[in-house]
């Protein structure tokens, strides 16, 4: 019996969430009774995590470790995972597999380099994930009775960056429409390699959330007040202004494109958290997956 057996009706959902955090070659995968977590980090300053909760799977069977732990933790080659799933996950549809090719961990096929695939478009491809006793991750994609299997060998886990929003009191928290946040960050990223993000609540005034940047090509500033329609909620304990690397914020744009809502929060040490809520096809009528980015500031102001 595998340590994990999980089935999705649509492989595209798994692909898009994995791709949303794919800015490094390797990732750490954590499998628990509650679901699957894929975490990526860079330069000790930014951490991204995709949460695939149990309720987004049509079937989910988890056998806990015999050592008393509640999780299996192992490294995976995220680039290979995304490469293998990409041809079968285009635009919520898929590409038809001509034969039941067995795909190795380098993304190649037993029939030749990805030779079992053609560009004939069909409906969504189902995906089965299995974690074996030796922590090999098996991915089986099925469409119209045709199976494609990929084996990803687990890797040694790397030392994980520990970023915890709870280590300091929360300075502000905003829930807003994801597309507004995406457009704001996109426009600001193009101006300068660092951007300033601030929140304040002057006495007797509405709370303000501001994203700005100034560079050789010009400057930009987008200011939101707590009473605008794009903000669902806005709580602010005082004033906080910090600078963050634009490159790291750019990593979050793919996830924001998928999301309907986004949460922006920061603690009083300046740790910034962006959490995106993404609607997915689950076992029930409605299910959501979450992608979270945590970023350390580059400079206190």
UniProtKB/TrEMBL annotation:
- Identify its protein family: Belongs to the rad1 family.
According to its UniProt entry, the protein's GO biological process terms are: DNA damage checkpoint signaling; DNA repair
Q: Which organism is it from?
A: Thamnocephalis sphaerospora
Entry-linked Pfam families: Rad1 (PF02144)
Where is the sequence biased in composition, kind Low complexity? 99-108
Question: Which keywords does UniProt give here?
Answer: DNA damage, DNA repair, Nucleus
Q: Name one GO cellular component term.
A: checkpoint clamp complex
Q: Where in the cell is it found?
A: Nucleus
Which residue intervals make up region (Disordered)?
Answer: 99-119
Q: What is this protein called?
A: Rad1/Rec1/Rad17
* Presence of the UniProt keyword DNA damage in the record: yes
């Amino acid at each position: 019996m595998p340590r994990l057996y999980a089935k999705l009706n649509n492989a595209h959902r798994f692909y898009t969430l994995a791709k949303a955090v794919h800015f490094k070659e390797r990732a750490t995968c954590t499998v628990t009774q509650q679901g699957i977590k894929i975490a990526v980090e860079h330069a000790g300053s930014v951490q991204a995590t995709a949460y695939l909760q149990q309720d987004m799977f049509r079937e989910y069977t988890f056998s806990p470790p015999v050592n008393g732990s509640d999780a299996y933790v192992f490294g995976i080659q995220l680039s290979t995972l995304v490469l293998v799933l990409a041809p079968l996950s285009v635009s919520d549809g898929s590409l038809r597999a001509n034969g039941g090719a067995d795909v190795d961990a380098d993304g190649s096929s037993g029939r030749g380099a990805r030779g079992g695939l053609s560009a004939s478009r069909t409906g969504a491809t189902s995906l089965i994930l299995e974690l074996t006793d030796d922590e090999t991750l098996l991915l089986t994609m099925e469409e119209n009775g045709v199976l494609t299997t990929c084996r990803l060998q687990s890797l040694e886990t790397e030392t994980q960056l520990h970023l915890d929003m709870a280590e300091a009191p929360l300075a502000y928290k905003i829930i807003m429409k994801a597309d507004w946040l995406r457009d704001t960050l996109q426009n600001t990223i193009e101006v300068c390699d660092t951007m300033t993000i601030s929140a304040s609540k002057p006495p007797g005034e509405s709370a303000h959330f501001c994203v700005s940047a100034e560079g050789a090509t010009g400057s930009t500033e987008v200011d939101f007040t707590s009473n605008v329609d794009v903000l669902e909620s806005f709580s602010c304990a005082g004033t906080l202004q910090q600078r963050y690397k634009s490159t790291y914020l750019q990593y979050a744009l793919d996830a924001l494109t998928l999301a309907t809502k986004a949460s922006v929060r920061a603690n009083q040490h300046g740790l910034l958290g962006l959490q995106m809520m993404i609607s997915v096809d689950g076992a029930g009528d409605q299910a959501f997956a979450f992608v979270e980015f945590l970023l350390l500031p580059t400079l206190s102001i």
